[in-house]
Specification:
The structure is a single chain. With 495 residues, this protein is α/β, with parallel strands linked by helices. 35% of the residues lie in helices and 16% in strands. It has a single domain, classed as TIM Barrel (Alpha-Beta Barrel). The protein contains 14 helices and 19 strands. The strands form 6 sheets. An 8-stranded parallel β-barrel has the order 1-6-7-8-10-12-16-17, surrounded by 4 helices. The radius of gyration is 21 Å and the shape is globular.
Length: 495
């Protein structure tokens, strides 16, 4: 048998893309609530207000770009006349029983979801939590238990409470460490017996590329991003410490955005570029999972004149309380080269050289049939800790046909290749893998583009790019395919 009986099959979502109910139950605003919708060729925007003049406006929100997200003196804010996808998303807040029942029907063993920090502490720095927000997640976890589904909970998934971004500058300020630990400790204590697995920061290395999304940092300078990452590392270590004190059975993992990088040619210059291009990603795992700052990163900071506001105790904490396991997202691979005149390809939050051996879809995503085996071996060989694939999937412009169905054979083909690759890593290479949760198991809003058109799920949700639709749920063909995959514990990947 490919996987042991404890292997956790399931799906993954994020509150800012799925939950909705953005002011229901005492919830405060988060950074995602000021991001407008966009499209493949049109960036999302951060909306803002100048408290001195009352002037409002918006600034293009571009991933992989540093600098300020709003003008000097302005603050991120919700303004009239704009459409914000996170405010309703696909409304898990009011559909959680229906959606979890669908997950149960598929046979899910695990459901990865995020708690919206601002639902528990509306401002982020509140002295006491919001009881109504805590009760909502009690109900969600109780519903999961009815179907034998283990929750995997992300504590911060691109949702820093907006107040923390405005008052403190987000994760550049060390005071956020204490605010986060208060939040994490509250959650750990509240859900003892209901939740065994936690992740601290979703794709923590996205601090490198989008400091506002990953850390509520309005001015994404190299110095601010480095400080924000350091503060999150310390907060994560303290969260691990708190979890193990509250319940030694709790496991707290890291979550990394990962994709293997291939050199375009055998040219040693290309090989070196691929090696060096992986360092900004691996650095985050070297610290949070490995427990130490690698020398290559310290050398980089020295060259760039970056100095961290830190303490000796920070590094003791990192060494003593690393992540219990390493989870990661992986949608595909990328290619780099030192050579000119090579076509560029854009994928899921990543860009690179077009790989001539792979097929791509309308968003530039390429299906790499070996990507998960390669990724799993690279990470397992480096960290020697249990792994968990918590995001993998493909966005596509799914259409509901006249017969009321969605025929997504392309998604099945993508998953067949990826799961076969994952299975080989386990059965042939001996990688220790805890589970697999396909991204966006119920249709949700795209993080990168803020659109609904790019759909991921096994379940179609009647919702369009402007927020119109009934929110009715319809299982796709892939729903029934994945149901069989789980029932056979991954041994049957056929159509």
């Amino acid at each position: 048998m490919a996987f042991d009986q404890q292997f956790l099959w399931g799906g993954a979502t994020a509150a800012n893309q799925y939950e909705g109910g953005y002011l229901d139950g005492g919830k405060g605003l988060s950074t995602s609530d000021v991001l407008t919708a966009g499209a493949y060729d049109q960036p999302r925007r951060v909306t803002w207000r100048d408290p001195a003049t009352g002037e409002t406006g918006s600034t293009p929100f571009v991933l992989f770009a540093g600098g300020r997200q709003v003008p000097e003196g302005a603050e991120p804010a919700v303004i009239d006349g704009e459409y914000y996808p996170s405010h309703t998303a696909t409304d898990f807040y009011h559909h959680y029983k229906e959606d979890i029942a669908l997950m149960g029907e598929m046979g899910f063993k695990c459901f990865r979801l995020s708690i919206n920090w601002a639902r528990i502490f509306p401002n982020g720095d509140d002295a006491t939590p919001n009881e109504e927000g805590l009760r909502f997640y009690d109900q969600v976890f109780d519903e999961c238990a009815k179907y034998g589904i283990e929750p995997l909970v992300t504590l911060s998934h691109y949702e820093t409470p907006l107040h923390l971004a405005i008052k403190y500058g987000g994760w550049t300020d060390r005071r956020l460490i204490d605010f986060f630990v208060r939040y994490a400790t509250t959650v750990f204590k509240r859900y003892v017996g209901k939740v065994k697995y936690y992740l601290t920061f979703n794709e923590i290395n996205m601090m490198e590329h989008s400091a506002f999304m990953a850390g509520g940092i309005v001015d994404g300078t190299p110095q601010n991003k480095a400080q924000g990452a350091h503060n999150q590392f310390v907060a994560s270590a303290l969260a691990v410490k708190a979890a193990h004190t509250i319940d030694p059975a709790l496991q707290v993992g890291q979550m990394l955005a990962y994709g293997p990088l291939y050199a375009f040619t055998p040219d040693p210059a290309d090989q070196l570029k691929a090696l060096l291009a992986m360092q900004p990603t691996l650095f985050y795992a070297d610290v949070q999972t490995g427990g130490h700052y690698p020398k290559y990163q310290l050398q980089k900071y020295a060259r760039e004149g970056i100095e961290l506001a830190d303490t000796p105790e920070d590094y003791e904490l990192l060494a003593q309380y690393p992540a219990d396991f390493l989870s990661f997202s992986c949608y595909g691979s990328n290619v780099v080269t030192t050579h000119d005149d090579v076509g560029e390809s854009a994928g899921n939050l990543m860009t690179g050289v077009k790989n001539p051996y792979l097929k791509t879809n309308a968003w530039g995503w390429a299906t790499d049939p070996q990507v998960l085996r390669i990724a799993l071996n690279q990470l397992y060989d480096r960290y020697h800790k249990p792994l968990w694939i918590v995001e993998n999937g493909i966005g596509w412009a799914d259409e509901l046909t006249a017969d009321g169905k969605v025929h997504d054979s392309y998604r099945i083909e993508y998953l067949q290749a990826n799961l076969a690759s994952m299975r080989d890593a386990v059965t042939l290479d001996g990688v220790e893998l805890m589970g697999y949760t396909m991204w966006g198991c119920i249709d949700l809003v795209s993080a990168g583009t803020g659109e609904m058109k790019k759909r991921y799920g096994f379940v179609y949700v009647d919702r369009d790019d402007r927020g119109n639709g009934t929110l009715a749920r319809t299982p796709k063909d892939s729903f029934y395919w994945y149901q069989r995959v789980i029932a056979t514990n991954g041994s049957d990947l056929s159509n």
